[in-house]
Structure formats: structure tokens, C-alpha cells
Design brief:
The radius of gyration is 16 Å and the shape is globular. It is α+β, with helices and mostly antiparallel strands and about 150 residues long. The longest helix has 12 residues. It has 3 helices and 8 strands. Strands 1, 2, 3, 4, 5, 6, 7 and 8 form an 8-stranded antiparallel β-sheet that branches. The chain has a single domain, classed as Roll (PH-domain like).
Length: about 150
């Protein structure tokens, strides 16, 4: 049975938000991907090895609701829609096409930059519902963009 509403607990208050999408996610912060010690060779050669998952530091579940993105798993992350500054789908210097199978012909990562407070921001890279060759990133990107307009 499909649930229509998502309940988010914040400091003993419950907010009701419309649930849009949910799935599993592989994700990283930008500073984690910038660590050459951990990802240097992977960025250059991982596309040649079909058994490797895309670049990521964290795994979990993701929920897109009418008020934000919510990630649970090995680390929890909340991105309220009102704090999102930029949404981009594609490869860049931190997450290059050479790091994935088929050089990204079938999917591209989602990059989200959001405000933490007035002087700080954070950037995360998401790969949602990755199956080996495909992901649901395009659906999530389009839905997120439509919510932000």
C-alpha cells in the first residue's frame, strides 16, 4: 500500500509533508570526493571495472518530500528545499565521467549545494537507485527542479 504522507519528527513537533519519491542512495560530500588519497585512482580508472559501485562514502535511503530531501543510513542528512541553492545533474572535476561504467552514457550524478547557515554551505553528490548500469537520477532531478520552481 502506498503511503501518501511522510512524517518528519523535529524537536517534538511533527510536520506533515507530501511524499514525492523514495529510494536508496549512494552519496558523498564534495570534500570527501576531493580526497585524492581515497579516490585518486578510482576517478581515473573505475569505469573499466564493472563490479565497482559509483564513487560514494555513504549509503542509505532517501526521501523527497514537498519540504525537502531526507537521507537516513550510515549518516543522516536533511536538506530543506528552502536551503537549496543549486541543483545540477552531470559530471565535474570531483565526480568525472571516467569514474563510472560506460563513461556516464546511462546516468549522471546529482549535485546539490545548500546553505547550512548564512555563512556556510555544503555540497553533496547523489546516485539514487543505482542498478549497475542505470539510476533514477533523471526522475529525481526533474521532480526536485519542479518543486524548487
Amino acid at each position: 500500500m502506498l503511503k501518501i504522507k511522510a512524517y518528519i519528527h523535529r524537536k517534538y513537533k511533527y510536520m506533515v509533508a507530501q511524499k514525492m519519491l523514495e529510494g536508496n542512495v549512494l552519496w558523498s560530500y564534495d570534500y570527501e570526493l576531493n580526497n585524492e588519497k581515497n579516490f585518486g585512482w578510482i576517478k581515473r580508472f573505475a569505469g573499466m571495472f564493472s563490479f565497482l559501485k559509483p564513487l560514494h562514502n555513504h549509503e542509505g535511503n532517501i526521501l523527497l518530500a514537498s519540504n525537502g530531501l531526507f537521507i537516513t543510513g550510515d549518516e543522516h542528512l536533511e536538506l530543506p528545499l528552502s536551503n537549496i541553492e543549486e541543483v545540477y545533474m552531470g559530471f565535474d572535476e570531483l565526480f568525472p565521467a571516467s569514474s563510472v561504467k560506460n563513461l556516464g552514457m546511462f546516468w549522471q550524478p546529482i549535485r546539490i549545494k545548500s546553505f547550512i547557515n548564512h555563512s556556510e554551505s555544503q555540497t553533496v553528490y547523489l546516485v539514487i537507485n543505482h542498478t549497475g548500469f542505470f539510476s533514477d537520477n533523471k526522475t529525481w532531478f526533474n521532480t526536485l527542479i519542479s518543486l524548487l520552481r
